[in-house]
Amino acid sequence: MTSHYFDHTFVRLHYYKFGTGADNMLCFHGFGMHGKQFKLMTETFGDKFTFWGFDLFFHKETWLKDQSLATVKKGLQKKEFANLIKDFCKHEQIGRFSVIGYSMGSHYATTVVEELPDRVNEYIVAAPSSINPGALIRYFGKNKTGNKLLEKLMLSKKAMINLISLCEWCKFIDAAGRDILHNEIGTAELRFALYACFTYLRHLETNEQQLINMLEKHNIRSIFIFGKYDKMYLPAIGKVFFTRLKQAEVIILEENHEMINKNFVSTLAELLL
After folding, report:
1. How far apart are the two ends of the chain, measured CA to CA in Å?
2. Contact present, 61 and 55 (Cβ < 8 Å)
3. What is the CA radius of gyration of the chain?
4. 148 three-class SS
5. What is the DSSP letter of 14?
6. DSSP 3-state of 270
7. Are strands 11-18 and 2-7 parallel, antiparallel or unpaired?
C-alpha cells in the first residue's frame, strides 16, 4: 500500500493505493474512518482490482484549502465533487472504475454514479445511508435551525455527550454508532470536523430517479449490503426504493453497523470473483 496526495483547486486530497489488479475501484469510507478502511479486501481482490482509498473531507490528511466556517456552510455541490473525481482519474490515468462506499461514504459513491455514470462498472454500497440518511442527519445538516443548534453544541463536549446519549436512547443510533461518535468529540478540532461532516455534504442527497435512470441506462451492476442488526440503517429503509430499482442485488449480512470485516469480503468475493 502506498500513500499519496492530489492537489486540486479547493482541496488537498489524501489517498492510498493498494492492490495490483487491472480493474480500478474507488473507495469511500464511513464517518470517523479513513482511506485504509477497505484495505482488508487486498488479500482477496488484490489481483483483480487496484483500490484507491480516499481520506474524505475533514478526515485524517485531506484538507480543504479554505476550511473556514463560511466554506463549510456553503457545502459541496455534486458537480464540484464529480469534477474532482474526473480530475483525479485523469491524474492517475484511470478510465473506467467501480465504486464502493460505506455509510457516509455511500453519499459520495452515489454522487459519482449520478454524475459520471458512463465511467462506472459496479456500484457497491454498504449500510447505505444515501438511501435514507434519517431525520436526525437531515435536521442537523439541512434544516437551518437544526444546523445552527449543532454549531452551538460543538462548543461543548458535555453537551455533545448528552446529545449522543439522547440519540441512542431514541434509537437513532446503535451502540456501534455511539462509540464512533464518542471518539470524534474529544477535542474542539474533532467536534468542528463532526459539525463540518454533517454540513459540508448536505447537498449530496440522493436524487432517486436520477440514480435509477443512470444505473439502468448504463447497465451498472448495483449491490446494496445491509447489516441485519444495524439499527442505524436497517434493510427496511430501501423497501420503497427497491421496488423501483428492479435489478438491484440486496445482501443482508449477520452484522451490525460495523460490517467491513472478513465476512463482508467473503460475501463480496462470491458476487465478484
Report:
1. 22
2. yes
3. 18
4. helix
5. E
6. helix
7. antiparallel
DSSP H/E element including 5 = strand 2-7
Cell of 55: 481520506
The H or E element that residue 76 is part of is none
The three three-digit cell numbers of residue 168, written as one number: 441512542
**Mean pLDDT of successive 10-residue stretches along the chain, which has 273 residues:** 97 98 97 94 98 96 94 96 98 98 97 98 97 77 79 77 81 78 76 87 95 97 96 88 92 95 97 94
DSSP string, 119-146: GEEEEEEES-TTT---HHHHHHHH-HHH
Q: CB 137: neighbour CB atoms within 10 A?
A: 21
135: cell is: 431525520
SS3 147: helix
Residue type, 229: Y
- CA torsion 135-127-15-11 (nearest 10°) is -20
Residue among 196, 202, 201, 206 nearest 142 (CA): 202
Supply 228's cell numbers.
Answer: 441485519
Q: How far is CA 232 from CA 57, 94, 173, in A?
A: 22, 34, 5
Whole-model pTM: value is 0.90
List helix spans (H) across the chain.
Answer: 42-45, 69-74, 78-92, 105-115, 135-142, 144-153, 157-169, 175-183, 188-200, 208-217, 239-244, 262-272
User: CA triplet 84, 53, 70: central angle to 5 degrees?
Assistant: 45
Amino acid identity, position 104 = M
